[in-house]
Amino acid sequence: MTVELITKAQSKNNNSRGQVALVGAGPGDPELLTLKALKAIENADLILFDNLVSQDIRALFPPHTKAIYVGKKKADHCIPQDQLNLFMVDKAKQGLNICRLKGGDPFVFGRGSEEQLVLHAHDIKTIVVPGVTAASGCTAYAGIPLTHRGLSTGCTFITGHLKNGQLDLNWSQLAHLEHTLVFYMGLGKLAEISAQLLSHGLDSNTPAALIENGSTPQQREFVGTVATLPTLAIEHQLQSPSLIVIGQVVSLAEQLSWRDLEQAAKNQELSA
Ligand code: SAH
After folding, report:
1. Which terminus of the chain has fewer Cβ atoms in its 10 Å neighbourhood, N or C?
2. What is the CATH topology of the domain spanning 135-256?
């Protein structure tokens, strides 16, 4: 059944209320949108989108559909979360089908589940469309596998932005996991992340990378070690959104890089 069919059937069953699709837009490249995400965008009466939804994806919004930017840059919370939740409830009660579009995956540091709890409390039906999360999208585009036999037995996603502003993490556990560590929202706390991991026993030569604007034409990636990351970030003036990847898998980045080849093929197509 297409998203359109689900949407129409479900809204009829619920006194003509609209439903909310919590949709992941992936890390930026529009070709990483799922077919289901694209259908949810095309079938919505109203699109509410975050800062991390790339310009190329915004360009896919149907011109006749109302789309509202609801912010979420650190210093730019356009609409406070509580108000946004109530706005969605209100619009769904009016019968609008809403596409709540978020960068990456709505359930990975995306507040999708928080919004869903509020919507369900108001008896609004939801569907969830997963997206490619930054950890897998950005690393893949930088030639870094999240796991690799013999180098990493797992992968841990960590937020570098905590509610009270404190990075109160279990550092000794993180330093000894022998996993790939992926920090989201960590750029502002990079010096602390590096220092804490080192002081809790992570080898200072552990390979590490910073990936800015992953999967977009503006992607930049820098490879160093857990000890050199803070200097790299300053030297190259990294900006948000940036992802921090720490672990032996980063040592494969040079061998596995593929984007230059893709770009060369595209250029060749253009000049043919
Ligand atoms: N729900 C999103 C994450 C939201 S938290 C997801 O699943 O990807 C926002 C953080 O994600 C950013 O601060 C950054 O650390 C990371 N991020 C998202 N998109 C990114 C991109 N294109 N390049 C680098 N980092 C990205």
Report:
1. C
2. 3.30.950
- Residue with CA closest to ligand 1 atom 16: 184
**What residues act catalytically?**
50, 72
What pLDDT is recorded for position 73?
A: 60
Q: Which CATH superfamily is domain 8-132 in?
A: Tetrapyrrole methylase, N-terminal domain (3.40.1010.10)
Encode pLDDT of 229-241 as tens digits. 999 999 999 999 9
Q: Is the CB of 213 under 6 A from ligand 1?
A: yes
Ligand 1 in contact with 52 (CB < 6 A)? yes
Distance 173 CA to ligand 1 centre (A): 24
Residue range 45-88, pLDDT digits in tens: 999 999 999 999 999 999 999 999 998 665 555 788 899 999 99
**67 C-beta closer than 6 A to ligand 1:** no
Is the previous residue joined to 241 through a cis bond, with omega within 30 degrees of 0?
A: yes
Q: How confident is the model at residue 203 (pLDDT cuts 50, 70, 90)?
A: very high
Outline which parts of the chain fall under CATH 3.30.950.10: 135-256
Cα(264) to centroid of ligand 1, in Å?
27
Of the CA atoms within 13 Å of residue 28, those in its CB half-sphere come to: 21
pTM: 0.91
Edge to edge, the sheet with strand 242-246 lists 155-159, 180-184, 242-246, 207-212, 220-225
**Ligand 1 pocket, residue 247 CB under 6 Å:** no
